[in-house]
């Protein structure tokens, strides 16, 4: 039954052959930048990426979950400069990530006037080299150069930042039921692959020197719209783009993947077009054809009521406390879940996941704590409440070990039961379409439809019961008020509930939602 809605033949390389093996897909998602804020775009990539990975797994692919940390580049040089001025060991000891973020914010603030001056000069068509060769600019670039040269002291400091961040994030992802197979990152791109990209592009006449930098003029080699990009800067440092192109070669070597999917905001559409185009310039159409950028509209926020949200853990904490508030208010009302810390935590996470998965990729949304924890409407908590309600009904029944063969299903030949059956029959189509279109929101929308229909079934039994507590098994199975309903009919209904719960389980698993313990 766990298999319902899955189709493991889709991921096979040659499904009809007897020796068919699963194809390998790398799903790269989340990918935050060290020491800077975990943005709404990172959040959406995290949720969506996890769902897309799960959908592939359900369809028989061999899935590798990859986190490509922004752990290299000049911003890390800036952080190190900040560490020199504001870093304090005790504070780092106590709360590594919090302290790093604080340091980064302070140094960014100091750096801002220089950055603005440089931007102004560029806008006015002046040379920015003078501005950027002094002050914090120079310190930042010098430190990054030391990192790129592999200088032990610089690398050691950088590694402390990186390790602390990974430890922090691994914990936060676990709260979302997400586990990465690899924390890779921009720092991990091999010098050999970088060399290979540059020499190949040079051989093909695509790589040009321009004012001390090395560039690719996409507009010259097509497609025009991609413009000109720097691959290696004036100071000799590699760019985000160059590292991404080289990372494709590294991953091909390491995994020989059949497909690689980048789950990244639509803001980076041009960037990924360039990555894929550059791989083509290198004469590697075979590899370029395996690359796919799954984009999405940015989530807005955080909204003011979310307060100062900086890191993934803060977003999760905020959601849990929003749910906690609502549980406190609803105390005693039939929301089907107990007001415990564990429940609030599961509900908070579910609320965030559901809020994101409510929207198609192309639709942006704003973080909203107000409705996040509500038990009405299309929210995570209301999905959990429906699930718990259904479970309570099943647990209270005398179904026990009754054999399926003994069930008389003719009792289910009318609405709302038939409607539930009809919906359940659609489930495999839903997962298939969600998989093909990369729209996990379809699965969530389906689960809401199913729970709505189930509510119609459950409703009659719960009529007149609004304290949600101390229900007897008799009340729960509806025997009390259903004059016309025979024990056989009730048994058939409970069997249906059990099957429906399995469908809910399967759908929730795709979304990384665990049922709240009741
Ligand atoms: N760290 C990047 C950012 O925050 C996202 C990385 C996306 N993946 C990639 N291969 N470039 O913008």
TrEMBL record:
**Coiled-coil ranges per UniProt:** none
Query: What is this enzyme's EC?
Result: 6.1.1.19
Give the Gene Ontology MF terms in alphabetical order: arginine-tRNA ligase activity; ATP binding
Pfam families attached to this UniProt entry = DALR_1, tRNA-synt_1d
Q: Acidic residues bias: where?
A: 459-469
Family matches, as InterPro entries: Arg-tRNA-ligase (IPR001278), ArgRS_core (IPR035684), DALR_anticod-bd (IPR008909), Rossmann-like_a/b/a_fold (IPR014729), tRNAsynth_Ia_anticodon-bd (IPR009080)
Provide one Gene Ontology biological process annotation.
Answer: arginyl-tRNA aminoacylation
In this chain, the stretch annotated as Disordered covers 459-485
Which of the seven top EC classes does this enzyme belong to? ligase
The DALR anticodon binding domain extends over 383-515
Record key words, sorted:
Aminoacyl-tRNA synthetase, ATP-binding, Ligase, Nucleotide-binding, Protein biosynthesis
Superkingdom, natural source: Eukaryota
Q: Name one GO cellular component term.
A: mitochondrion
Q: Catalytic activity, per the record?
A: tRNA(Arg) + L-arginine + ATP = L-arginyl-tRNA(Arg) + AMP + diphosphate
Q: Which family does it belong to?
A: Belongs to the class-I aminoacyl-tRNA synthetase family.
**The protein, known as:** arginine--tRNA ligase
Which species is this record about? Diatrype stigma
């Amino acid at each position: 039954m766990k298999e319902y809605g899955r189709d493991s033949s889709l991921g096979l390389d040659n499904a009809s052959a007897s020796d068919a093996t699963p194809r390998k897909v790398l799903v790269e998602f989340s990918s935050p930048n060290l020491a800077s804020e975990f943005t709404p775009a990172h959040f959406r990539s995290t949720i969506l990426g996890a769902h897309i990975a799960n959908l592939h797994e359900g369809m028989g692919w061999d899935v590798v979950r990859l986190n490509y940390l922004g752990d290299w580049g000049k911003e890390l040089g800036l952080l190190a400069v900040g560490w020199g001025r504001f870093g304090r060991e005790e504070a780092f000891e106590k709360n590594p990530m919090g302290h790093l973020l604080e340091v980064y914010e302070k140094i960014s603030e100091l750096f801002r006037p220089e950055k603005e001056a440089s931007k102004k000069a560029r806008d006015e068509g002046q040379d920015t080299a003078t501005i950027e060769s002094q002050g914090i600019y120079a310190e930042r670039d010098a430190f990054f150069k030391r990192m790129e040269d592999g200088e032990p002291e610089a690398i050691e400091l950088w590694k402390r930042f990186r390790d602390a961040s990974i430890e922090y994030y691994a914990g936060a992802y676990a709260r979302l039921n997400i586990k990465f197979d690899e924390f890779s990152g921009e720092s991990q791109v091999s010098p050999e692959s970088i060399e290979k990209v540059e020499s190949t592009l040079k051989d093909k006449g695509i790589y040009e020197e321009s004012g001390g930098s090395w560039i690719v003029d996409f507009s010259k080699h097509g497609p025009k719209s991609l413009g000109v990009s720097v691959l290696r800067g004036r100071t000799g440092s590699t760019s985000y783009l160059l590292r991404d192109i080289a990372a494709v070669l590294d991953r091909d070597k390491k995994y020989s993947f059949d497909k690689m999917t980048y789950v990244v905001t639509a803001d980076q559409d041009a960037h990924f077009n360039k990555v894929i185009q550059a791989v083509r310039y290198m004469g590697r159409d075979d590899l370029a054809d395996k690359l796919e950028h799954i984009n999405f509209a940015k989530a807005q926020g955080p909204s003011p009521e979310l307060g100062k949200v900086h890191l993934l853990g803060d977003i999760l904490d905020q959601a849990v406390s929003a749910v906690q508030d609502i549980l406190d208010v609803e105390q005693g009302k039939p929301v089907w879940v107990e007001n415990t810390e564990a429940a609030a935590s599961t509900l908070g996470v579910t609320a965030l996941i559901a809020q994101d998965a409510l929207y198609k990729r192309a639709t942006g949304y704003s973080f909203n704590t107000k409705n996040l924890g509500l038990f009405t409407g299309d929210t995570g908590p209301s999905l959990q409440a429906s699930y718990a309600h259904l479970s309570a009904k099943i647990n209270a029944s005398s179904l026990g070990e009754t054999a399926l063969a003994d069930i008389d299903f003719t009792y289910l030949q009318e609405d709302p039961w038939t409607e539930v059956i009809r919906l359940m029959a659609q489930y495999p189509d839903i997962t298939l379409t969600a998989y093909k279109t990369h729209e996990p929101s379809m699965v969530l929308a389906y689960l809401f439809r199913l729970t709505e229909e189930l509510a119609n079934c459950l409703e009659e039994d719960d009529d007149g019961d609004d304290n949600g507590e101390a229900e007897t098994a008799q009340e729960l199975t509806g025997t009390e008020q259903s004059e016309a309903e025979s024990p056989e009919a009730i048994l058939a209904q409970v069997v249906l509930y059990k099957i429906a719960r399995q469908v809910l389980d399967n759908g929730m698993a795709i979304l990384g939602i665990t049922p709240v313990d009741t």
